[in-house]
Amino acid sequence: QFVKAQVDFGPRVPNSAAHSKCAEYLTAKLKEYKAEVIVQQAEAKAFDGKVLKMKNIIAQWQPAKQNRIMLCAHWDTRPFADQDKTDVNKPIDGANDGGSGVAVLLEIGRQLAASQPNIGVDIILFDAEDYGQPDGGMQKEQANSYCLGSQYWATNKHKQDYFPRFAILLDMVGAKNATFTMEGGSMHYAPTVVKKVWDTAAKLGYSTYFVYEQTNPVTDDHYYLNTLAEIPSIDIIHYDQTTKYHFPSVWHTHNDKLENIDPKTLKAVGQTLLETVYTSH
Question: Whole-number mean pLDDT of the chain?
Answer without folding.
Answer: 96
